[in-house]
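Q: What structure does this chain adopt?
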Amino acid sequence: MISTILPQQEPQAATYNYPCGDLLERGRRREYISICVSLYKASIKGDWEAASIILNGRENLVRFSITENKETPLHLAARARSHVFVRNLLDMMETKDLKLQNEDGNTAFCLAATAGDVRIAKIMVEKNPEVLTIRGTGNMMPLYLAASNNCNEMVKYLYCEQMATDGLTDDDWYVLQ
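A:
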């Protein structure tokens, strides 16, 4: 039944809120490749000491895609479950930066939901509650993404958050049952 619902809800790529991609454009790639690789490694390892050195004087890098999949350091840190790293990145970011989506349409919050990390989710919601209702892969709400990945504690958290269920359509409720 899900396969009949998903194609009807599939978002168009133009609706995604992509991060800045200037660093990975052909003309600038050589100039920034070592910075992107170093920041990528620090983000997936949760190495804030290394990241802070890279970001010092380049704070705007927190809103740039550093992977071909248009992921920011926050996307990577959320998936890697790096609590301290996420908190420090969020301190450098504006609330609107949490709405940035990767190539698949996922915000960093969606990735935290699929990873089942409630602590990171709470930190992000504290910064910008709107992340609860921004749809990700397959036009699915973070609540559905958590449920489909068997992240029970995340589902409980998201289900109890008022905004997480406010944006659900009838189709969403049907799929969640």
